[in-house]
Amino acid sequence: MQLDVDISSKSYTSANGKRQQVIAGMTFTLRRGEVGVVVGPSGCGKSTMLRILAGLDSDYQGKVSQPAGARLAMVFQEPRLLPWRSVEDNVRLAAPDVAEDRLSAIFAVLELEGHRSHFPGELSLGLARRAALARAFAVEPDFLILDEPLASLDDALAARLREEIATLVASRPMITLLVTHSMDDAVRLGDRIFLLSSRPARLLHTVPIAVPRAQRSNELIAAIKADLARLDFSVS
Amino acid sequence: MLRLLSFALLLATWWIAAAVAGSVKLPPPSAVLAVAIAEAQSGALFLHLGATLARVTLAFTLSMAIGSALGYWMGRSRLANRLGDPWLILLLNLPALVVIVLAYIWAGLTEVAAIAAIAINKLPTAVVTLREGARALDPALDEMAKVFAFPRGRILRHVLLPQLAPYIAAAARSGLSLVWKIVLVAELLGRPNGIGFEIGVAFQLFDIPLLLAYSLSFAAVVLVIEAVIVQPFERRASRWRLRAA
């Protein structure tokens, strides 16, 4: 079971009538159990790529073959919760078959236990992001897409949530694709790192990390980051 | 409390005006109340109120259901909007009287004609309101529902209806007041019962207490329905807003 991505081109017509190319070429494969991390400059077309992979945009040249019958879950850049349903209802609507003990476990890991009956409008952004993560994990997906789930959170909280994502990803064999600006997130979470060029996005380098996530020491992470920095690539 | 005071002020004004104008043109509240009680005791008041309410309920339900579906469709599909727009503008600007008279001519002085005419009058405002609602739907939530593979029923109940609820409430509110007005005209012109028919009788006899007794009973029923059905629905629909206006 794997995800094959081969997008040769994606463009759209902007408001002033000009044709804009967003993606110029991207080919990669992700296997079950692997975490792919996409890193690229701001506005390079990462979110466009994710929309194509999630099946929300079919207007592109190329081919994306999702594993047949795969259950999809996505954490969007904004939490995208239903404001008129409680946190628990938001999760249950996406994952109607989730068992109560599994749900409790997810809420416990994400420290949402006390917020089950709150409406999204009553939550801070950090809590709302956690609720969106809870929803994605409750689905027990085969294919998980995370679009900058840790952006605009303070460092301590981001680090904790990163640990939680690592725990949850390890708990199930699934294909995971994470988009981030942070090299630190990329090196700590990824099995393979995809480095994209600025717009129109092209896949510049694929960097595999052989050492399992749990065994990566801080020295190793620093070394990999230094290696990445030497590549002809910069994250703005 | 303030409402009661305001109501008492209205009654007092009426009483004084009746005393000044003379009881032939404007009977005092007590005379109107006496007529209303007499009509209620004979059962006629409830018969006519019931007939009118039944027509209102049917026409309102019909036009809300069809109007909401059409409005949603026109808000979501550009083609539907292009096809429907000329009809909508025509219906919006067609005087109620024209629709009622034509309905009676084409379908006879029947119940079907009356209800259809009332429904057609209300339909375009429901369509216009719901079309705005459908245009304002959040595409981000559509995408969320698609990614998590929500089935249609769940999308309708948990994603679409909560977003459309304020528009449905607005359409119901404005539509109901329109239907209250038009139903009486339809009854006056071609029905043998209902408040509108009875007002027609009172007009021909110049029986002002009778006219006021029926009009005010009708107004009271409208107020009760507003307070018991429409306003609680609006409150419930906006419960999730932290501090709803």
UniProtKB/TrEMBL annotation, chain A:
It comes from the Bacteria. InterPro entries: AAA+_ATPase, ABC_transporter-like_ATP-bd, ABC_transporter_ATP-bind, P-loop_NTPase. The lineage of its organism: Bacteria, Pseudomonadati, Pseudomonadota, Alphaproteobacteria, Hyphomicrobiales. Involved in beta-(1-->2)glucan export. Transmembrane domains (TMD) form a pore in the inner membrane and the ATP-binding domain (NBD) is responsible for energy generation. Residues 7-223 form the ABC transporter domain. SMART domains: AAA. GO terms for molecular function: ATP binding. PROSITE patterns: ABC_TRANSPORTER_2. Belongs to the ABC transporter superfamily. Keywords: ATP-binding, Nucleotide-binding, Transport. Pfam families: ABC_tran (PF00005). Gene3D superfamilies: P-loop containing nucleotide triphosphate hydrolases. Transmembrane segments: none annotated. It comes from Bradyrhizobium denitrificans. This is ATP-binding cassette domain-containing protein.
